[in-house]
């Protein structure tokens, strides 16, 4: 049974007076609370989160390589223009690529936390189903 089908079945049962009488008001309230929580939240699979994290790692490595290439090319080109124009080397201010890389690392940490939450949820799910 799919999750959406199970939720629909429980909603139908919870609204039935005979079901309410059979299981009791507090059980129906518990079912309604779970249904409400299900509808108010999103479910992300561990596979989706791990794919997102993997895609991020690929993106991060490409950005780092692009920054390295840009720094190599721009410094060399700017130095050549300055040498041609001024006849000497000049000190060029460094662009703050470190800030961009730190932001990427913070984003990676947040994605990693999300992946850990998914792994923990899966562990809880397996321990619950093995205890049943």
Describe this structure in words.
- With 132 residues, the protein is mostly helical.
- It is 84% helix and 0% strand.
- It has helices at residues 3-14, 17-23, 25-40, 46-86, 97-131.
- Helix 1 packs antiparallel against helix 3 (25-40) and helix 2 (17-23) packs across helix 3 (25-40).
- The chain is rod-shaped.
- The protein starts with a helix and ends with a helix.
- The model has no long low-confidence stretch (mean pLDDT 80).
Based on the model shown, name its key terms.
132 residues; mainly alpha; 2 domains; 5 helices; 0% strand; rod-shaped
- Structural category: mainly alpha
Cα-based radius of gyration, to the nearest Å = 28 Å
Coarse morphology: rod-shaped
Low-confidence parts lasting 5 or more residues at pLDDT below 50? none
| Main β sheet profile | none
- Our count of helices gives 5
What's the pLDDT, averaged over the residues? 80
Q: Give the N-terminus to C-terminus distance in angstroms.
A: 18 Å
Strand content: under 5%
Residues in helices, as a percent range: over 70%
User: How many β-strand runs?
Assistant: 0
Task: Domain count, please report it.
Answer: 2
Order of helices and strands: HHHHH
Note the topology:
Blueprint lengths: L2 H12 L2 H7 L1 H16 L5 H41 L10 H35 L1
Helix pairs in contact: 1-3, 2-3, 4-5
């Amino acid at each position: 049974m799919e999750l959406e089908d199970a939720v629909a079945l429980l909603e139908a049962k919870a609204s039935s007076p005979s079901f309410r009488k059979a299981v009791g008001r507090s059980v129906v309230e518990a079912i309604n609370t779970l249904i409400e929580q299900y509808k108010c939240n999103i479910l992300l699979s561990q596979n989706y989160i791990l794919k997102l994290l993997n895609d991020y790692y690929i993106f991060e490595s490409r950005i780092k390589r692009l920054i390295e290439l840009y720094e190599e090319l721009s410094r060399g080109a700017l130095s050549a223009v300055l040498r041609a124009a001024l006849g000497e080397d000049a000190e060029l201010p460094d662009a703050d690529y470190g800030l961009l890389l730190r932001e990427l690392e913070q984003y990676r940490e947040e994605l990693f936390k999300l992946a850990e939450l998914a792994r923990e949820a899966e562990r809880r799910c397996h321990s619950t189903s093995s205890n049943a």
